[in-house]
Amino acid sequence: MVHPVPATVEPYQLLAFGEGRKIERFGSWIIDRPEPVATTFASSRPFDSIQCSARYTGSKIGAGAWDFQSKDLSNNTVDFCLDGRELKFELHLSDSGQVGLFPEHIAVAKAASAVVPMNANVLNVFGYTGFASTALAVTKQAAVIHVDASSSAIAQCQRNANINGLQGITTRKDDALAVLKRLARKGTRFDCIIADPPAFGRFKNKTWKLERDLHELVSVCSELLTPDGVVFLSGHSTGFEHHLERALLVAPQLRCIEQAELFLMCGNDKLHKGTCFVLGGPSCHIQTPIFA
Ligand SMILES: C[S@@+](CC[C@H](N)C(=O)[O-])C[C@H]1O[C@@H](n2cnc3c(N)ncnc32)[C@H](O)[C@@H]1O
Question: For the domain that residue 16 is a member of, what is the CATH number?
C-alpha cells in the first residue's frame, strides 16, 4: 500500500532511513538512495510504503545507477523560502548517486543568512553546486566568490545563480587552498567565509587532505576575515573536531562561538551528518545560538 506523503511547507524532508538507505523528499521529488550513516539503524518505516520518483540502485554511493520510477521528472527545481525570500535550486542527479544538494547544509545556509550583514563579501570554498552561495546572494545581496574543483559543480552553481536572476556570484574552478592564499596575498577581506572541506579531494595535481591541510585553511581564513567577520567551517568525517581544535591553535585571532551538530530529522529520529563550527574574528559580536 502506498501512503501519501504528509503535506508540509518544508521543501526538504527526510521521510525514512535505515539499513543503509534513506528516502527524502526534495520538493515534488521523492528519492531513495544509499546512506552510509543509516547502516546501523533498522528501517524507521517500511520503504515500499513510499512511492519514489527515483531510486539509486546499489548498496553505496558511486556503485549503482538511477532507476526512474515516475513519469514526470521534468520539473527538477525545488523552491525554498529563506529569510522571507524565495530561492530556487535545481536537483541534478549524478551518476555517482548525488542529487546536487547536501540537505544538512540547508541549516548552514540559514544560519549564515541570519547573521551576515547586507551586501556582505562572502567566500564559499568547497562550495559544490552553490546552495549557500545562492542563499546569501538572494537573502543578503552578497557578493560571493564560489570555489570548487569540479567542473560540473561549478556549472550547476552557475545554473542556480541564473535561475534566481543573480549577478553577484563569481565562480572559480580551482583548488580551494590555492585561491585562499592568492586572495590573502592580495589583501582581500571577507565578512563571511563558508568552508565545507571533504576528508580527501583533488584539483589537477593538487590533493586536499583534511588531516594535513586543515590548519593551513584555518590560518589563511583568519587572515582573510574582517575583524567582525564569521567563518562557518563544517566537516563530516570522524576526528574532524579533533583536527579543528589543533588547527585553531595556529589562528588565535579566531574564536569558536558555536558548535552545531548537523542532523537530518525524521520525526523524532536523527541522522548525524556532520558538525559545523562557527568561528568569529576578534571583534565579532554575533549573538548565539545561531543555529535554531
Ligand atoms: C562535501 S562537498 C561540499 C558540499 C557543499 N558545502 C554543499 O552543501 O553544497 C565537497 C566539495 O569539495 C570539492 N573539492 C574537493 N577537493 C577540492 C579542492 N582541492 N579544491 C576545491 N574544491 C574541492 C568537491 O568537488 C565537492 O564539490
Answer: 2.60.40.1180
Q: How far separated are the first and last CA of the chain, in Å rounded? A: 36
105 lines ligand 1 (CB under 6 A): yes
Residue 152 resides in a domain: yes
Mutation probe of ligand 1 site: the residue of 148, 193, 231, 277 with most atoms within 8 A of C-beta: 148
pTM above 0.85, yes or no: yes
Mean pLDDT per block of 10 residues along the chain (292 residues) reads 47 94 94 91 76 91 89 83 95 94 97 97 98 98 98 98 97 98 98 98 96 97 98 96 94 96 93 97 96 86
Q: What is the CATH number of the domain that holds 130?
A: 3.40.50.150
Q: For the chain, how many structural domains are there in total?
A: 2
Residue 23's domain spans which residues? 12-73
Measured from the Cβ of residue 95, the count of other Cβ atoms closer than 10 Å reads 10
For 217, residues 6+ apart whose C-beta sits below 8 A from its C-beta are: 125, 176, 177, 180, 195, 197, 233, 247
In this structure, the answer to whether residues 27 and 93 fall within a common structural domain is no
Look up residue 62 and give its three cell numbers. 558511486
